[in-house]
Amino acid sequence: MVAVGLPSPGLFVAIGLGIAAVGCGLHRFGRRDLPGSARLAAAAAVTVGAIGTLLGIARVVMILAAISKLDRLLP
Q1: Using CA atoms, how far apart are residues 9 and 28, in angstroms rounded to an integer?
Q2: Residues 41, 44, 48: CA angle, nearest 5 degrees
Q3: d(CA 55, CA 23)
Q4: Rounded to whole angstroms, how far apart are CA atoms 70 and 67?
Q5: Contact at 8 Å (CB) between 51 and 22?
Q6: Which parts of the chain fold into alpha helices (H)?
Q7: Cα separation of 53 and 13, whole Å?
Q8: How far is CA 24 from the centre of its chain?
């Protein structure tokens, strides 16, 4: 989630790491033979990864909206 606040490549890093965290968390959470603490950590990874991905996507949408506004200002 820290990567969302970084300059230009930060939002793409945030989206990529968020997707990776969700994937890894879902993979580990699906294993029934793991103890409860490991499954809880996997669920936390899914949550944090999803939040990071959503924040990165929100930043991309805001940038695209700003570009659209600037495009309308130009003749």
Answers
A1: 28
A2: 140
A3: 17
A4: 5
A5: no
A6: 9-29, 36-73
A7: 9
A8: 13
Instruction: Tell me the C-alpha distance between 36 and 57, whole Å.
Output: 31
> What is the tens place of the pLDDT at every residue in 15-39?
898 999 999 999 999 888 999 999 9
Six token digits for residue 6: 């970084």
Q: Per the structure block, which two tokens stand in for 48?
A: 């944090």
In this prediction the pTM is 0.78
Tokens for 33, please give them: 């033979």
User: What would the two tokens of residue 67 be?
Assistant: 């570009």
> If you count them, how many residues does the chain have?
75
User: Can you tell me whether residue 40 is helix, strand or coil?
Assistant: helix
Residues 5 and 13: their CA atoms lie apart, in Å, by: 11
- State both tokens at 39: 């499954």
Q: What is the token pair recorded at 40?
A: 């809880």
